[in-house]
Amino acid sequence: MKKVFICLAIVIASIAFVAQKSHAVATDTITITISINATSSVLLDNNTWNLSGSSFNTSYATGPFTISNDGNVYSDIMIQGSDSNGTNPWSISATTGLNQFVLQALIGSDGASAPAASDFGNDGTDTLTTSYITATAADLGEATWDATPGTTVAPGSARDLFLYLSTPTSGWTSAVSIGSIVVNVSSNPL
To answer: What's the CA gap between 106 and 127, in Å, rounded?
Structure first.
């Protein structure tokens, strides 16, 4: 009987142990937020193009102007033209005319050879306006010359910019400042 009593006590103790209220372990979540100090920045190696002694109804080419991505994120190069400054300004346009000039741009790889005059504008996508144009392979790029776009430019990498100016067919004055060509970058999230 003593054995039965001990066995019964062990069974009751086991049932009491199993029947005890179990406690769940408390959980929580850690949310990690990272803010990278991203910098989109561009550096031009030269910012002047002097065309003294130029004429109406004439075209001029120049370059390269090296555009370096000196930021710390991949970037897209964007270029914008502007009207000229002065009393009798010239207007940037798709065609030359009275006080209207055409300014075209091509973006190529760093160290690219100069494009031929025929490479500018033959597809209609190289002409600058007063709005930003992103330098893709199709816009401001020329597959028959150098197919390196100005998009997704890695930090520390560079592209070469070449310009082609067609002066007005005629105008009120020949002494104007063409204004500025703005080169900008935006971060590219890949």
So the answer is: 9
pTM score: 0.77
Nearest CA to 49 out of 65, 36, 28 is that of 65
The one-letter amino acid code at 2 reads: K
In this predicted model, what pLDDT tens digit does every residue of 48-99 receive, in sequence order? 787 777 888 999 999 999 999 998 989 999 898 888 776 677 888 999 999 8
pLDDT tens string 110-139: 999 999 988 887 666 899 988 888 898 888
CA–chain centroid gap for 109, Å, is 15
Count other C-beta atoms under 10 Å from residue 12's C-beta: 10
Q: 171 CB contacts (<8 Å, ≥6 apart)?
A: 56, 88, 90, 98, 99
Q: 3-state secondary structure string, 147-172?
A: CCCCCCECCCCEEEEEEEEECCCECC
pLDDT tens digits, 26-47: 889 999 988 888 888 888 888 8
- What burial letters (b/e) apply to 152-161, b meaning 16+ CB within 10 Å? ebeeeebbbb
Run of H or E residues at 3:
helix 2-19
